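re: ur question from yesterday

yeah so i grabbed the chain u mentioned. its 338 aa long if i counted rite. heres the sequnce exactly as i have it in my notes:
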Amino acid sequence: MTTGEPIIEVRGLKKYFPVRRGLIAGMLSREQIWVKAVDGIDFEIRKNEVFVIAGESGCGKTTTGRCVLNLTAPTEGSIIYEGVDLATLSKREMKALRPKLQIIFQDPYESLNPRLSVFQSIAECLQVNNLVSTQEELLERVKMAMEDVRLIPPEDFLYRYPHMLSGGQRQRVVVARALVSQPEFIVADEPVSMLDASIRAEVLQLLKELIKKYDLSYLYITHDLASARFVGDRIAIMYLGKIVEFGPVGRVIDNPKHQYTAILISAVPIPDPTLTHTRRAPVGEVPSPINPPPGCRFHTRCERATEKCSREEPPMKLVEKDHFVACWHHFKPSQWRD
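ran it thru and got these structure tokens back, copy pasting raw so excuse formatting
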């Protein structure tokens, strides 16, 4: 249950990456070209909340998560945590906050050093940040984190290496590594996408249980709306660097207001062979983030787009309680900005 008090506030977040060009292209034009991965988004994450960012690959989800933790420096915007703008902090100042702000990466095998044992991988955060004073305390904290993620008994796993673990066990090690510093906020970047369906449910249930035990808040990044509904409280749908819809996760998934959200939901399989399920697909290809279309970014693929959609970007509009959508279809002509 969320308290309503924000733990993270994101305002006007942008992240542009420079495009590297060849020698001849650089000689013909010196104008810098940018990939607009995240292009001006706003949201807040409340205490004890799971805030979900969902969308297809390349929409800017992971870049948003990395910017929120200042692992990737934002081009513009602010990320407020405990009254401090993380985007303005130096590396030394940011290091002092790292134990409270952790991340669970998508691929556990890639994010674990194959030369480090489970104990070394989990203990590293405590050692680097000087969070323990004795070797006995270090071992106790590592064992406690392993028990929390149900790697039990810990003695059976402490000195194994990543290649000696199953996929689910590796993911639990990554979760334990994020928990061992006793953080307040965790970015979970598609933490179950590499796992089998049966293991996914166990890890998602574990993440939910840890919220109550450790008073945690999550930014949960996914392309899987089924898992988003299971674990999330509120959800933001991203398309081409923009948030097009957000609100309570059940309300957005049950009654989507944006065409893009409806298309994403239609792709979720229904585990009932007696029901007919029609999948919808948007027309055309995803535009380039280097040169995104003007107006509503989805208008080039939207079946109900109008001339207004191609000329002007729609603002967020409240359509139901706590449910917002950026679509001109939900504005009356008298509300259009000229």
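noticed a couple things. The chain has one domain: 6-335. also The mean pLDDT is 89.
anyway ttyl
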